[in-house]
Design goal:
Blueprint (H helix, E strand, L loop, with lengths): L7 H10 L6 E9 L3 E8 L2 E8 L5 H16 L17 E2 L8 E6 L3 E3 L7 H15 L18 H13 L5 H15 L11 E3 L8 E4 L5 E3 L6 E3 L1 H13 E2 L2 E2 L1 H13 L13 H18 L6 H16 L4 H14 L1
Antiparallel strand pairs: 1-2, 2-3, 3-5, 4-5, 6-8, 7-10, 8-9, 11-12
Helix pairs in contact: 3-6, 3-7, 4-5, 6-7, 7-10, 8-9
Bound molecules: adenosine-5'-diphosphate and magnesium ion (MG).
The site of magnesium ion has 3 residues, from loops.
Length: about 325
């Protein structure tokens, strides 16, 4: 894969395909990671976010995600507007001579990054989840992503360690010494119940929220992972991602989020430790994938180094069962 180059020809092609009118002024990279890269495109007196997608997707899936995002917007969740091409598609593939990337386009939100401690943000998080859960937007047969409820078997961990040994990886002893606790964490993972799933954004974390300068309102970005999940697991994920910082649990933050969730019409309750399945499964999958990446000869040295750093920091901060139980107890005390 060559990837998108932020040059005039690519900017012109994208502007034409999405019918922006006028000559684009510039396209500059602004962010992104392993799943995609985002560019700001200025054209026809307005700004747009071009997202280059690294993960395979298809027009039907994106159309379902856009319909879900539109439904969320109707109940007050602000998000960038999705644009479609002049022939009505959300995905646009650039020709090979322009790098051959697949991109999407949405409106640019001029905003400030958020901090979890910002006043009112805990409540916004609870209210956004509550309003979306209140919709009960049907999963409609969309596949549940196994990232959130399946994790590597003991055999795969052994194979990974053997491959790490063979490749002289420096993480081998760190993973080997933690294997027991990684496998006990895997015991907490239970398969999601297909009939209990509704649509959710699936990546509500601080990087994906911005505070729009003009309106001072929170805007939720990055809907590309949206799909089915069980409501209690969504709630547990949010409490963990927003209110647990290392060993510190922000009890007031959890309470603020839960109270706002109920006020906004949210109906889920954490049933037990299994409500944290998505946290635990995605943690184990993340550790595993980062370790694999460090061994992947076809990846650039830079990406392998980034994977090694991610692996190290993830291993140092597992979702240990005692902290999961503490969050569960705070949540239960509130219900
Ligand atoms: N519509 C947008 N307006 C302004 N900034 C955006 C927009 N979309 C993405 N960004 C910026 O680019 C970053 C990465 O975009 P995101 O869609 O979250 O990609 P990723 O899947 O890589 O996390 C965001 O955290 C945000 O800073
Ligand atoms: Mg993001």
């Amino acid at each position: 894969m060559q990837g998108l180059e932020a040059n005039d020809a690519a900017a012109r092609y994208i502007a034409e395909r999405f019918g922006l009118g006028g000559r684009p002024e510039r396209m500059v990279p602004v962010g992104g990671g392993e799943m995609g890269r985002v560019y700001r495109l200025d054209a026809a007196g307005a700004a747009w976010a071009v997202k280059e997608l690294f993960r395979r997707t298809d027009e039907d899936r994106v159309a379902r995600q856009v319909a879900f995002q539109d439904a969320a917007a109707r109940c007050g969740i602000r998000a960038p507007a999705n644009l479609s091409t002049v022939d009505g598609r959300h995905l646009c593939s650039l020709p090979a001579e322009l790098g051959g990337a697949t991109v999407r386009l949405c409106s640019w939100i001029d905003g400030h990054p958020v901090q979890t401690a910002d006043p009112g943000l805990s409540e916004w998080v609870g209210s956004a989840i509550g309003r979306i859960h209140g919709l009960s937007y049907p999963a409609d047969g969309a596949d549940h992503d196994p990232w959130y409820d399946a994790c590597p078997t003991p055999k795969r961990w052994e194979e990974l360690i053997a491959a790490g040994d063979a490749g002289g990886a420096d993480w081998v002893s760190a993973i080997r010494s933690r294997l027991g606790s990684l496998l006990s964490l895997a015991d907490l993972v239970t398969p999601a119940e297909p009939t209990a799933m509704i649509c959710w954004h699936l990546d509500l974390q601080p990087d994906n929220v911005t505070r729009e300068r003009a309106s001072d309102e929170y805007v939720l970005l990055d809907w590309d992972d949206s799909g089915p999940e069980m409501p209690d697991r969504v709630l547990a994920m949010a409490l963990w991602d927003w209110h647990v910082h290392g060993d510190e649990i922000d009890i007031k933050g959890i309470q603020g989020t839960l109270a706002a969730y109920r006020r906004a019409g949210g109906h889920a309750e954490l049933t037990g430790i299994e409500s944290f399945t998505a946290i635990v499964a995605s943690y184990l999958n993340y550790v595993f994938v980062q370790a694999e990446r460090t061994l992947h000869a076809q990846l650039s040295l830079d990406r392998r180094r980034r994977a090694a750093a991610e692996l190290q920091s993830s291993l140092a901060n597992p979702p240990d069962p005692a902290r999961l139980m503490s969050v569960l107890n705070v949540a239960r005390a509130q219900i």
